[in-house]
Amino acid sequence: MAPITFVNPGGGYEVVVGRIIAAITEHLGAVNIRRQPVADTFNVHFFCEHRDHITGKVRQHPDMYIAHGWNQKLFGQFVESLNQFRYIGVPGPVVEEFLKSHGFAPERLLTVGHPGMDTFFQFPIAPIVAEKPRVIVAYSHSTFAPLWKTMPDLFKNRLADEFDVTDIVHPAYGARMARDYLPGAVACLTDVSGTMFEAWSMGVPVVFPTWSIAKGTETQQPGSPLRRVYEERIGYHVEDSTDFFATVKEAAANGITPEEVTFIDEYFPRELRGHSGEVAAKAILRVAGVQE
Questions:
Q1: For 28, what's the count of Cα atoms within 13 Å in the CB-facing half-sphere?
Q2: To the nearest whole percent, how much of the chain has pLDDT over 90?
Q3: Architecture of domain 134-267
Q4: Which tens digits make up the pLDDT trace of 129-159?
Q5: Phi-psi category of residue 197: left, alpha or beta, with phi > 0 → left and psi -120 to 50 → alpha
Q6: Distance separating alpha carbons of residues 184 and 133, to the nearest angstrom
Q7: Which of 90, 98, 96, 48 is nearest to 70 (CA)?
Q8: CA distance linking residue 131 with residue 121, whole number of Å
């Protein structure tokens, strides 16, 4: 039995988690990839709930946690659930500092970047050619934003007059991945979705429906990434729905702001883009006590 086990519980997230595992295991020797953790091995999990979201059983052998997504909502709402893990993988300094402020010892926090994005940065996708500038609409599947889910339909006809509008649903529910359509896009319209971080890391400005969503983000812990985005107004924030179209045009014309660049460079540092799997593999080997 190999000394390290990666737990991919399957379901709608199987491909998403599999992509992360592949990016890490490329830099490891023999490992186990299982639906459930394996006793007497070092188990890496990609979900943090105390009960497995597929089986409903209490999570076993919680050695390390790496987010299956960007986890901007988790880090602000369910911080206590991370305490079950001996080690927590973080994308960069923003999350590391936030968790340290909540009492997590620095030695438990391991920088891993975002391994699931490695192939994009290693093998960039050519921008999709369209007759009009393309905007991406990618809202969350979270209960944060039930109102916003109906909002894009109210604006699509008007947006379609000047833009090529591409809808992206959450990867657990659809085959399209935002990262495949973001290259060449002039703006990304989202709410509390981790797509904001993908867009920023690709240099695409983000437009937020702040008039509809900001109040809901107040449930996030002070100083958490998502709450900071709304409180500090990082990106293009629409305070009144009547300004939505004008703000999209502004973002498309002016591009990503210095504040967006600064934030994403601290959230997901440039040196980790395309190299996260290797960095994560080295961190896992070190804490698992396995020789490279």
A1: 25
A2: 57
A3: 3-Layer(aba) Sandwich (3.40)
A4: 778 999 998 877 655 555 555 555 667 778 8
A5: alpha
A6: 8
A7: 90
A8: 26
Distance CA 67, CA 87 (A): 12
Q: What values do phi and psi take at 9, rounded to 5?
A: -75, -5
| Paired strand residues for 51 | 58
For residue 288, give both structure tokens: 């698992």
Residue reference for tokens 């968790």: 99
186-227 pLDDT, tens digit per residue, is 999 988 888 999 999 999 999 998 988 888 788 888 888 989
28-33 contact pairs (CB < 8 A, 24+): 28/4, 28/281, 28/284, 28/285, 29/2, 30/2, 31/2, 31/4, 31/5, 31/6, 32/1, 32/2, 32/4, 32/5, 32/6, 33/5, 33/6, 33/8
3-state secondary structure 191-222: CCCCHHHHHHHCCCCEEECHHHHHHHHHHCCC
Exposure string over 253-270, b if 16+ CB within 10 A, otherwise e: eeebbeebeebbbbbbbe
Place of tokens 């009492």: 103
Q: Can you tell me the distance from the alpha carbon of 214 to that of 212, in angstroms, rounded to the nearest whole number?
A: 6
The residue behind tokens 């699509």 is 156
pTM: 0.90
41-82-47 Cα angle (round to 5): 65
